[in-house]
Amino acid sequence: MQTINKHLFSVLVCCFVFIGEGIAQTPFFRDQQFQKINSNTQINTIVQGSNGRIWIGTSAGLFHFDGFDFVKPDIDTCLHGQGVRTLCAVENGSVLLGSENGLLLSVDGKSCKTITPAGYDTGFAVTDIIKSANGVIWVSTYGNGIYKIENNTAVHYTSHSGLPDDFVYCLTADKKGFIWAGTDNGLVCMHQSNNEVQIKTYSVDQGLPDNIVRQVVLGPYGQIWVGTFENGVALLDEKLGRFTVPENLKHWKYGHINCMLILENEFWIGTDEMGILDYEFAGLGRIRLFESDFLDEHKAIDCMMMDNTSNVW
Questions:
Q1: What are the mean pLDDT values of the chain's consecutive 10-residue runs (313 residues total)?
Q2: Rounded to whole angstroms, how far apart are CA atoms 148 and 140?
Q3: Are 181 and 187 in contact (CB under 8 A)?
């Protein structure tokens, strides 16, 4: 898929402004720009550590925000000049980092450590990292399936072991401990059963509007929502094993979905060409595209994150 270079980093501040009785609230947008990197740098991921620090993973390496500017920690000895594809916040303010070429690192702001579990092969971009409640680390890759890392040992899952495709975009863990993954050929559910990981795939045969699943997010009650590459969003009914598409989103016209963020009873959906779509999945099912001078200039939204003060980055 084509990647578009973007160099502006924006904060979408969720202190909504009332614009009239009975009219939806409007967010205030503030633009935070990198001052110390070139204009071709791609921003790939944003997370907030347990200590409140904002981390930004880019094609030019790792940065964190100090309240005024974006600072690059000295981790080149571990990163070897590779771009950062994904970040996962863990305990003690540290983050787990996945690089464009498959490196796994642990970074705490002052030092870095390369993670080298037995059975893990580098060379493929790491697209997502999550750490489950029991301490197991799951890693998805673009072209080499999924790794489960436990006790410094990696178990590898590919199309030869039950995945529908080795190109995996995202990972999400639900409250039951199930791991959900979006791939180029459907939605995957992985769970432990009798000392083995069971793999189940949902595709267009179960009502998925598009087999390319770019995002998987949990609703407020644990519902599984997916964002697809070309055909919008859908909700999985786990009991029936079927997807439904909200009535007012059945004729999707907002282009490719890059990211999704839940805010109580609504989603912010980051698209590649239409900016941010606000979809209220509870209540009246309102849909609106945010309009501002900022978003008129920057239609492609690659990633979003809500911080601990309810600002959206």
A1: 45 45 60 67 92 92 84 88 96 95 92 95 95 94 97 96 97 95 98 90 97 95 94 94 93 94 89 90 82 65 91 89
A2: 9
A3: yes
Q: Which two tokens stand for residue 160?
A: 């030869």
Which tokens go with 91?
A: 């305990």
Question: Which pLDDT does position 297 carry in this prediction?
Answer: 63
| Sign of the torsion formed by the C-alpha atoms of 208, 210, 211 and 213 | negative
The Cα 173–Cα 179 span in angstroms is 5
Phi and psi (nearest 5°) for 219? -75, 180
Say if pTM beats, i.e. exceeds, 0.85: yes
Whether 73 and 107 have beta carbons less than 8 Å apart is answered as: yes
